[in-house]
Design a protein that fits this description.
This protein is an alpha+beta fold and 249 residues long. It folds into three domains: 72 residues, Integrase, N-terminal zinc-binding domain (Arc Repressor Mutant, subunit A, Orthogonal Bundle); 94 residues, YebC, transcriptional regulation domain (Alpha-Beta Plaits); 69 residues, Alpha-Beta Plaits, CATH 3.30.70.980. Helices cover 47% and strands 24% of the residues. A hairpin with a 3-residue loop joins β1 and β2. α1 runs parallel beside α9, α2 runs antiparallel to α3 and α2 packs across α4. The longest helix has 20 residues.
Length: 249
């Protein structure tokens, strides 16, 4: 299971335990707005919006809140205009980091992201410095238990690429353009869907076996993820399960 997937699971548990829930709502709503602005307000013809709509509903965002976000995105309601800005850098130990943001003030966000890197032992890099180490993928988490041979057959028939175990569940990877189709196909086979999203997957992960070093990287990721404008944080690190468990605690 990839380091980022483990981190996503840890974030989910953390968010269920504290006030991060409201922050998760705000981030999802912002993503819905941008998807609607870029591809239109009809989820049936806008795959990105359909994915974000489903993700927001899975996080229990009220449907009327999602619909208002769509209308702000399409211009039917007034609202801030967000732009996507990506930052690249290094965590302690030379771990590659990519930070995806949606911001209505690029200068403010840039200064704050740079400050978070510096404060937590990392450093900002030039655009393109680490992006080449990641591939864009669709990721569908399905609920176990599932017969693995049967799941592989369904994944391939649906147009997915592969899957791996993730605790009691399984993570299916797809081509980005096939995410919605694979999600719908697996659901049609009766597979329980936990989540479906576009993500970045490291081509080669670096094991971080030293607990102290791992916690430094995780602290930087947590600080970045806690920023209101940050939507996703990706690293090419692989963390031991026991370190993640200790960090979660």
């Amino acid at each position: 299971m990839s380091g980022h997937s483990k981190w996503a699971t840890t974030k989910h548990r953390k968010g269920a335990k504290d006030s991060a829930r409201a922050k998760v709502f705000a981030k999802l709503i912002r993503q819905v707005e941008v998807a609607a602005r870029e591809g239109g307000g009809d989820p049936a013809s806008n795959a990105s919006l359909r994915t974000m709509f489903q993700k927001a509903r899975e996080a229990s965002v009220p449907i009327d809140t999602i619909e208002r976000a769509i209308k702000r995105g399409t211009g039917e309601l007034e609202g801030a205009r967000y732009e996507a800005v990506t930052y690249e850098g290094y965590a302690p130990g030379g771990i590659a980091v990519i930070v995806e943001t949606l911001t209505d003030n690029r200068n403010r966000t840039s200064a704050e992201i740079k400050h978070l890197f510096a404060k937590n032992g990392g450093s900002i890099a030039e655009p393109g410095a680490v992006a080449w180490q990641f591939d864009r993928k669709g990721v569908v988490e399905v609920r176990g238990p599932v017969d693995e041979d049967q799941l592989l057959e369904w994944v391939l028939e649906a147009g997915g690429e592969n899957f791996e175990a993730s605790g009691d569940n399984y993570v299916v990877t797809t081509d980005p353009s096939a995410l919605a189709l694979v999600r719908d196909a697996l659901e049609g086979f009766g597979v329980g869907i936990v989540s479906a999203e576009l993500t970045l997957v490291a081509q080669n992960e670096i094991p971080v076996t030293d607990e102290g070093e791992a916690k430094k990287v995780l602290r930087l990721m947590d600080a970045l993820d806690d920023h209101d404008d940050v939507q996703n944080v990706f690293v090419n690190a692989d963390f031991p399960d026991e370190v993640l468990a200790a960090f979660e605690g």
